[in-house]
Amino acid sequence: MVRKRFQAQEPKTGLYYAQNFLKKIGLGKENYYFWKQIGKALLCTYAIAGAVWLYNETSPLGWWTLKPRPKEEWELAHLYEYRQFPYPGDEEAMQEFIAKGGMIGTTIGPKGTIETDKDALNYQKQLQDKKFEQEALKMWMRMRNEVIGELQEQDFDLE
């Protein structure tokens, strides 16, 4: 019989030390069932969170998303409707949409009534007129302030 100390022992390799370390930190073979359960729980949790996120982004119930809305929007939501835009490939619907005013110059008033009295050119002209009025008002105020300043230098009481 060979003495025990002379029997050939398997050399301790890096794999042995790695397995020993993993067992010490709770990742050994005997902990497999525990980590399997943790993995299932994480998978289910992330699946539910992903489904809720996707539903929130693409909700068929436009009035029931998880995004909070300000009080003003919540109170006035019944006054406005969502405007449907045509699919870009549908030529007939695009022509009809542009004929009604398209994107430029259309306004949607209360109860979803579309005010189509503005066409694109008229809208551009209104913008230019508004800008012109603002510049004229600025120039008028500047000239008025200059005159008031000059009169106050000459000791006139304007108040």
From TrEMBL:
<protein>
    <recommendedName>
        <fullName>Homeobox prospero protein</fullName>
    </recommendedName>
</protein>
